[in-house]
Amino acid sequence: MARPSSIALGGYFPAPFTLLPSLASLVSFARQDDAHILVDPCAGDGFAIDELRKHWFERADLDARIYAVELEKERAKGLRVRLSQADRTFHCDAFQVEISGQDGASLLFLNPPYDSDKVHGRLEQRFLERWSASLIPGEGVLLFLVPFYALRASAEFLAQHYQDIRAWRFPQPSFTASPPLQFPPSRRSHG
Questions:
Q1: pLDDT tens-digit profile of 154-169?
Q2: Distances (CA, A) of 60 to 38, 117, 153
Q3: What global pTM score does this model have?
Q4: Which of 16, 6, 14 is nearest to 44 (CA)?
Q5: In a domain, 28, yes or no
Q6: pLDDT tens column, 89-126
Q7: Which of 61, 137, 152, 158 has the greatest number of CB atoms lying within 10 Å of its CB?
């Protein structure tokens, strides 16, 4: 069951902003000819993914574009204002967006609504199954922020579709306030 405060905000529970530098330190990107693509299908106002990009791509030889989706109208407006014109923002249901690994996201920042789902057991798992396809096979990195109790629903999928999986829990007091775990730098397997 989702927390009442999260339900009141449309399932929105943003990553603690004080932990974004720590999350960013878990991932690094190599220089490449094309810009990296960072995907956030539950972007809120875009603060978290924008801050993460600033940490990762402050060097002049690295570049990244963000593809971000937000369902709630006011947060989607904030998202469009926050991100640059080179980024792509969508105000819609994340399950209605066409996605493909062909474009190849370097990173999937997935902090989905925390709730149960009739088919998948957990809504977090439904987002994971849907959005994993956006990653470059064998190279894309997943940052998956979920409550520890929701991890069971995703364990088999993660084991079958990702390699080099690691789990960390948020430090106190963030763990008690928002009990998600996250999975940095997991690489999507070919298969």
A1: 999 999 999 998 888 8
A2: 17, 43, 40
A3: 0.83
A4: 14
A5: no
A6: 999 999 999 876 666 899 999 999 988 888 878 999 99
A7: 158
Give the Cβ contact number of residue 1 at 10 Å: 8
**CATH classification at residue 179:** 3.40.50.150
Which residue(s) pair with 68 in the sheet?
40, 89
Q: How many helices (H) and strands (E) does the chain have?
A: 7, 12
Q: Is the pLDDT of residue 8 over 50?
A: no
* Beta pairing partners, 64: 36
Domain residue limits at 67: 4-18+34-188
- Of 85, 64, 145, the residue nearest 110 (C-alpha): 145
Please tell me the distance from the alpha carbon of residue 82 to that of residue 88, in angstroms, as a whole number.
11
Q: What is the pLDDT of residue 7?
A: 45
- Whether 56 is in a domain gets the answer yes
Amino acid letter for position 104: G
Count structural domains, the chain.
1
